[in-house]
């Protein structure tokens, strides 16, 4: 077992340009940046909320926040897409964190999350925060956790308060997701690689890197964005009605994560793929798959993927397929059905 610190270091992936933090706050333009990774859950989503283990990875892209002191009366945050520079939302928050508001776009939760992050720091002046998001939002790739980590790291770095980052991220993720398992934020702050994650009710947090050979995957956006909080709530309702059955399904999902951890270490791709298919079937029993997600999984398997499953909360969003020989054929087959995707290689030896 390794401690969470090994992959969750608040001061990592942050840097300050032009001046040291906290020196001469007014005279110089002090700019800090923080980065958070998007994530791919390979095994265990939803069941992880009930204390079962999961296997997941941080992606190189995610969110980058630029943070600087401002002369405005309020803290301001602007969220842009890296793909087209479109402004998704502009939100602000009073210096006393009292009045939050949305200036532009759909930022209801974003401004509450911004206030939640700010509440964990001692800010001598108001802040201007510019966030660029490098993945689509709401499709299971952990955009909110990437954003939370990037913003909290940037603010922590600018103010010289990196020890506050962890709790600030937690508060922000609670705004976005209600009762998150912590998996997304851990991956957003991770180093490159695949991790075994377990936070059972009665034991300590375990986050262990899996020493797997480089892992090549295809990812596509099979459905529209969906709310993680709504999907988690839907599973909770099903569990209230059928507690024994849903606990059994969650147990199966947790067991696939444990088995996958060993299969990944051995580079046993045939087994990893089969376990992904089993995990997907179990997620279907939880009610979080959709017709489009199931179809994208079938198409991927038909094009040579060794296994495929939804990734993230479901209800829409992304599918991940195992393509050890390269993702080209799967991406082509998806494109023929109108789904755009990308290939990603996860290697704990890369940065
Ligand atoms: C969402 O990315 C993953 C879920 O398991 C929720 C969570 O872990 O908090 C569905």
From TrEMBL:
A GO CC term assigned to this protein in UniProt: cytosol
One of the protein's GO biological processes: isopentenyl diphosphate biosynthetic process, mevalonate pathway
Primary localization: cytoplasm
Gene3D superfamilies: 3.30.230.10, GHMP kinase, C-terminal domain
Pfam family, one: GHMP_kinases_N
Chain ranges of the GHMP kinase C-terminal domain: 262-338
Keyword Lipid biosynthesis: yes
Enzyme Commission no: 2.7.1.36
UniProt keyword annotation of Nucleotidyltransferase present: no
Ranges where the GHMP kinase N-terminal domain occurs: 113-189
Pathway note: Isoprenoid biosynthesis; isopentenyl diphosphate biosynthesis via mevalonate pathway; isopentenyl diphosphate from (R)-mevalonate: step 1/3
Location of this chain's protein in the cell: Cytoplasm
Keywords from the named record: ATP-binding, Cytoplasm, Kinase, Lipid biosynthesis, Lipid metabolism, Magnesium, Nucleotide-binding, Transferase
GO molecular-function terms, A-Z: ATP binding; mevalonate kinase activity
Record-linked SUPFAM superfamilies: GHMP Kinase, C-terminal domain (SSF55060), Ribosomal protein S5 domain 2-like (SSF54211)
Family: Belongs to the GHMP kinase family. Mevalonate kinase subfamily.
The protein's name in its UniProt record: mevalonate kinase
Native species: Bradymonas sediminis
